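Please check this protein record:
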Amino acid sequence: MDISLDFIAGASIVKLKPLFSINGETVFIASKKSVYQYNTKTGKLIHEFTGCNADIIGMSFQIINSLECIVACSKTGKIIIWKITNKIELFELQIPKRNVTSFHLLSGNMTVGLQALIAYRTKKKGTKFCLINTKKLDIHTVLLKIPKTDFHIDVCQDKYFSVVVENFVHFFSLSSFTLSSYQMAKNSRKFTCVSCHPQEEAVLTGDDTGRVVFWQNLFGKKTQAIYHWHNLPVKCLAFSTLGSYFYSGANEAVLVKWQIDNPKIRQFLPRLPGGLVQLAVSDNNAYVAVATTDNAVRIIDSRMNQLTLIQHLVVGSQFECGIIYDPITRALVMNGNVGCVQFYSPIDHSLLYNVDIVGQNKLTSERECDLENTDLKKIALSRSGNWLGTVEERKDGEQLKELRLKFWFFNKEKQTYELNTSVEFPHEASISDIQFQPISSEDTLKCITIGNDKTFKMWQIAEFVTVHRRSLIWKCVSIGSFRGMLCRGLSFSLDGSLFALGFGAILTIWATENCELKSSLLHSEFKEDIRFVQFGHGRQCHLVVTASKSHLCVWNILTLTMSWVVPLSKVSLLVSDPLSPYMLVLCKVEKSRYKLCVFEPSSPNLIYSSNKLLPKSKQIVAAAFVPHAHTSDSKLQWYERSNLFLITSTNELYRLNKSGDLLFDKDGPAEDLSEEMSVFRKMKPQVQSSDVKQGIKQHLFPRDMNYKGYKEYLEAPIETLPPIRLLAESLLKSLILQREESS
């Protein structure tokens, strides 16, 4: 099968320090194998420089032969030089070392060769620093050896460089080849970052106690000046162009601006969405690039005001909510920053917006303890996308636990979600799942939550009248349980008339209208607790798939029998395609390898299976099928109907589908999209038809050219159809050619 696994988003854009152009009008950001050029004022992507064969570990902005160039080096030792003005590649070479860990361009030109400082990993798991000439490709004598691979380095042009590792700081002069080192007392402090002065022989270092130390007279009798405001380990430092002041950042999410001559004069930019990890200052001191842990780069001006945000997929701490498809914006809805949900568009690889669910200031950890924030645990969207359900929770074992269920309504004018109903402690224990009834009518829309208190609750829209206004709210209309057992897995039937729950090893089927138990199914030989439940779609809507830790079972709810069962090891995910009967199950077959299996509930034979497509050594934490543009072609393969998105434990988003296929058909909405158009769709001209009759002859019974009635009959859920004798006449009329009416 012609199937590929494509990386979509999620790679870190804050691993390396951003770079400014000479005039500061553009900023360069490295991510995986590419260097991206953005406009500083607008944040618009200008160009993507590609060509590296592995992840980039270092880049430099350099004037080479009077040309502004960007130079990047991959971890395999491949160096590429691009000309910025016309975006062409000028030079490419492979250095002898293929396990490079850092790269800094020092000086030189294309004629005599460029001089670079590289660090590479040795066989004994240590690191060596040496100089290399790009013309001769010769490595000079090793300048410095350290027994560790985790270090921080900064370079001052071709004058000197400084390295910090654990409780050591090293200074090396590139002119006299002199090494000077300093060691702090063991078990007292450890260095965490370093920054070299752009003009003088002076260095800033940060340590794990929050101190910033200013070192002078590096190769003589060293002097120190201490700047202390941070409570947490200092993560990044950056001098101004002339070195008269500097910036510092840590996990307090506060940017601090210091004056070298007067440490008491400080400026602050507080409440950034994440901890600071990288800092860069433009040559004219007009801009500061602040890279934060939420995988974003913010451009700050000299007055400490934010100008621009550059952000792709928000790299959150967890993706417990999974992946949800939003039919309004056609975006993927996932966990974002702490307490927020992000809407990410895979069409143009952009973050549309974040919705702050919790509405609380983020608590940063203290040096002595970690503080627990209220975070988002579960999300659900209605079929139309107009209703958003969220579950937020905080429990640290010491303070009072928090648990809230919230319902949000999409405001079409403001193009965002607004809070409608908030319920404190909807369950006595944590909520493990939440889903909306898959129906288009919102007057009778229901929502089900299942909790660890061995109950499930049904919520429904109700009218709420006060002396001030009349509005709609959500309220609990029913509470259910089964034999005092813990429930897991939740799935609605295609038309929403039934829902299935797993209680231990028992599959239960309930009527959505009155929350009445219809049947309970258990096989005597398979008594493992059910973890996942999925109703079939289309012609297989009468089948229910259940997955336990080591088995996949399919039940027929019309005959109340088990159709088939297959053994599977360590099932981690079970998801279904909304446009077809196909389902995906993920199994862990090895310590670092997952097996992907695609099947139909009607047959135990696998349609597709592979353990090579998925990224090795990366845990798959969430998956979802996202529909292509609407199609009724039944001959399409399973991977041609929908895109399969996967999120790994390293916060990387992948797409599995037909090789070379587009994400979406941008000319039309996908199936099950809301009839209401967004603001962006309204900007697109719509085709209008004339009311003037064209003189077409009318038939006695208009023929359904697309056999719509016939298809609706075949695709309708079996349990909802009336007797065939009541439908036969209209069905047959839709299939036969009618005689023209004689005048």
About this structure: The longest strand covers residues 470-480.
